[in-house]
Amino acid sequence: MKKIYFLFLLLTSIVFGQTQNPFAVEVSILRGNALPHTEDMYHLVNGHPNGVMINFLKRSDGSKEWQRAYNYPDFGGYFLYQDFNSKPLGVNYSVGALYNFYFLNRKLQFKLSQGIAYTNNPYDKVDNSTNKAFGTRVMANTNIGLSYDNQNLFKNIGFHAGLLFTHYSNGRIKSPNSGINTYLLNVGFNYDFSKDFVRNNDTISNTKSFKEKIHYNLVLRTGINESPIIRSGQYPFYHVSFYADKRINRKSALQLGTELFLTESFKEYIKYYSVAYPEKNISPNTDYKRIGLFVGHELLINKISLEAQIGYYVYQPFKKDIPVYDRVGMKYYFNKNIFGGFTIKTHLFLAEALEFGLGYRF
Q1: What is the DSSP string of 207-235?
Q2: Is 334's pLDDT higher than 50?
Q3: What value does the mean pLDDT of the chain take?
Q4: CA pseudo-torsion sign 120, 126, 132, 134
Q5: Do 48 and 65 contact (CB within 8 A), yes or no?
Q6: What does the alpha-carbon distance between residue 307 and residue 327 come to, in Å, rounded to a whole number?
Q7: Cα separations in angstroms, 299 against 191, 285, 355, 362
Q8: 92-140 pLDDT, tens per residue?
Q9: Coil, strand, or helix at residue 342?
């Protein structure tokens, strides 16, 4: 862990060692607890997770409209090392992109980051059969933090302290996939490489209307996943959505729509369930298709936006899952009509699919 810490400090000084650019680096020490959300995970939580998070940041100067709209956030990349202090769970390494948003005269920092993680000790039927959290070595990683932040504690050195919530899941690309959540005390320092950094004032917020007429969207999301039965096989899925969106202000758009779920692993799971639990009287030919209605919110940042939806199955012949589902993720607009997306569909804390989508807005 010490070697990783000093290696990244060295890389930081090389990459960002230019005082004319508004770059900064944050280094945080983490320690906390895991949050078991299923009964088969309590045996995995036998220590206090700890780690190091290193963020490479660019301070926004307000040269673009979205930067002024969000009170001059930071954006950049992160590296996260997390040791769960649990032999079955092992150690995770994560990299990805992040935003830092600021409130209360820039003393309150809200951190949001998304990336990919690598675990050194995933589930193995022979060597690590108790690890039901990580079914693959590579997973998705999401981190949300809230901290007190003082960027000018001493010259270019700042201090921050707060809480960081971390989540790991492979989106049930492969079972098992209970995933794991942790909350950690986040204490650290930052260093700004810039001098005399000046931000542009926001002069547009009260003079321009961002409201739009209703637009319609067609989205195809796909990928592979596996049923909850371990090693039952990976199959493709196709989730087709049609929805209307209405931008209501500078930052937000509301959504209302419907979607069709064609999940091939679900079809195989029905066959398995009908044989394994004959007392349930489930036909192996039960329709695997599902239809949902959903509402959503899109937080518009720049070409990237954050999307959250909650839906209800109005057609669900096989009712093993609860009828409510949710989806969170990110979108990227290639132009005003075409966008791509990366989302996770879950039933409360249980992930069903890691979706890669392509959509058209008209």
Answers
A1: T-------EEEEEEEEEEEE-SSTTS-EE
A2: yes
A3: 90
A4: positive
A5: no
A6: 8
A7: 29, 41, 19, 19
A8: 999 999 999 999 999 999 999 999 999 999 999 999 998 989 999 999 9
A9: strand
pTM above 0.90, yes or no: no
- pLDDT at residue 7 in the model: 45
Asked if 301 and 99 touch (Cβ cutoff 8 Å), the reply is yes
- Amino acid identity of 199? R
Q: Under a CB-based contact definition with an 8 Å cutoff, are residues 217 and 257 in contact?
A: yes
Whether residue 177 has pLDDT greater than 50: yes
The burial class, CB within 10 Å (0-12 / 13-18 / 19+), for 145 is buried
Please give the single-letter amino acid code of residue 217: N
The string of DSSP letters for 125-179 reads TTTBTT--S-SSSEEEEEEEEEEEEEEEEETTEEEEEEEEEEEEE-TTSSS----
